[in-house]
UniProtKB/TrEMBL annotation:
This is Nucleoside-diphosphate-sugar epimerase. Pfam families: Epimerase. Keywords: Oxidoreductase. It comes from Mangrovibacterium diazotrophicum. Belongs to the NAD(P)-dependent epimerase/dehydratase family. Dihydroflavonol-4-reductase subfamily. GO terms for molecular function: oxidoreductase activity, acting on the CH-OH group of donors, NAD or NADP as acceptor. Gene3D superfamilies: NAD(P)-binding Rossmann-like Domain.
Length: 353
């Protein structure tokens, strides 16, 4: 395992993203030089929050233009970096028209482009890749077949495909390609973070990130008639960001890490918000499975998805991430409250009373 020199720049790909913005902020606050990539340097609205953070931090930020689909796109941004944190990848659960083009190619080509350029560089010693819990298990029904019904780092998603659950499929094959290339190129370490569903305050006012739009929908009445039953493995965006940074700088960090903190569902999220904000049109019951099967397709969830993902219990084991990355996770209530406050503060959901 290689030590990373903190005086060298760190590359964070996809700095405009919800998760990456927190990683960039934390590194800048530690006084580091951060290289980050954005799809277009002309789209200032997507990265002005990062420039503002830089002005308030001791670190230095350098922006580079890069696209996951363009060969050699990351070369300039990689120059001089020992550590790369690769978060950029499209995250979209519904409304995907062309899975190959919108999800799979960017996820897999992005890994290839970045890893080949890293392999050719003289500086890169480690890549931390953002994968996902969905690269571990595709449908919650499969958890019945796991020992103790627990998800951990030994699990791989074998049920998703380009046609069914394309986002989990894109994350699974991108992570598998990353492990294959790291072994083949054999000149940098690879450490992987597999976050659960991320919530918590966003640093930008964008609403198109899936985690943000889910919270906005929940608070705006879209699920007033009820939410599907079934737990999620939630993690705070700040804890997920910290896990990436620890994975980067702890010399002994190794392998995959399930970064998930709390087994809760969307009624639990609603309950935490309602306690202090009773006037919002939040759900207070579950939609029966048969009804979700009927309406699911209109909301972008196929009947097969509903059958295989609604109403199943599961558990997960995050002990490896806690031990290997020396992290602890913040309370669920704090994540939800801080996220809600940010959305109201930024005008993304209406302020009441
Ligand atoms: P996000 O806000 O949508 O960020 C995605 C980032 O990827 C954005 O910076 C986006 O750039 C960039 N990107 C997408 N396609 C690109 C392309 N062709 N070329 C260059 N950049 C591209 O989502 P997020 O929640 O922060 O997700 C970040 C990572 O965490 C992803 O790898 C995602 O799979 C993973 N993850 C997320 C969750 C979650 O619950 N949020 C859970 C587990 C894993 P633009 O800003 O230009 O669109």
């Amino acid at each position: 395992m290689r030590n990373i020199d903190r005086s060298k720049p760190v590359l964070v790909t996809g700095g405009t993203g919800y998760l990456a913005s927190w990683i960039v902020k934390m590194l800048l606050e530690e006084g580091m030089t951060v290289h980050t990539t954005v799809r277009s340097l002309r789209d200032e609205n997507k990265f002005k929050h990062l420039q503002k953070i830089q002005h308030q931090s001791p670190g230095r930020l350098k922006l580079f233009e890069a696209d996951l689909l363009i060969d050699g796109s990351f070369e300039d941004a990689i120059d001089g970096c020992e550590l790369i944190i690769h978060t950029a990848s499209p995250f979209q659960l519904t409304g995907v028209k062309n899975p190959e083009k919108e999800l799979i190619q960017p996820a897999v080509q992005g890994v290839r482009n970045l890893f080949f350029s890293a392999g050719e560089s003289k500086s890169v010693k480690k890549i931390v890749l953002t994968s996902s819990i969905v690269a571990m298990v595709g449908d919650t029904i499969e958890i019945n077949n796991l020992p103790d019904k627990k998800i951990d780092e030994s699990c791989w998603n074998t049920s998703s495909s380009p046609e069914y659950q394309p986002y989990p499929y894109s994350k699974t094959i991108a992570e598998q390609e990353a492990w294959r290339l790291a072994e083949k190129l054999n000149n940098f370490d690879l450490v992987v973070i597999n976050p659960g569903l991320i919530l918590g305050p966003s640093l930008s006012q964008r609403s198109d990130s899936t985690s943000i739009s889910l919270m906005i929908q929940l608070c705006s009445g879209k699920f007033k008639r009820g939410v599907p039953s079934g737990a999620q493995a939630f993690v705070d965006v700040r804890d997920a960001a910290r896990a990436h940074i620890k994975a980067g700088f702890l010399p002994d960090a190794t392998g995959r890490h399930l970064a998930a903190a709390h087994l809760k569902d969307f009624l639990d999220v609603a309950e935490v918000i309602r306690e202090q904000n009773p006037d919002y049109p939040l759900p207070d019951k579950y939609v029966p499975k048969w009804l979700f099967k009927v309406v699911g397709p209109f909301l972008g969830y196929s009947r097969r998805f509903v059958s295989r993902n609604t109403g199943f219990d599961f558990a997960f084991d995050n002990s490896y991430a806690r031990h290997d990355l020396k992290i602890d996770f913040m309370p669920f209530e704090q994540t939800v409250r801080d996220h809600f406050s940010q959305l109201v503060g930024d005008g993304l959901i209406p302020h009441k009373n």
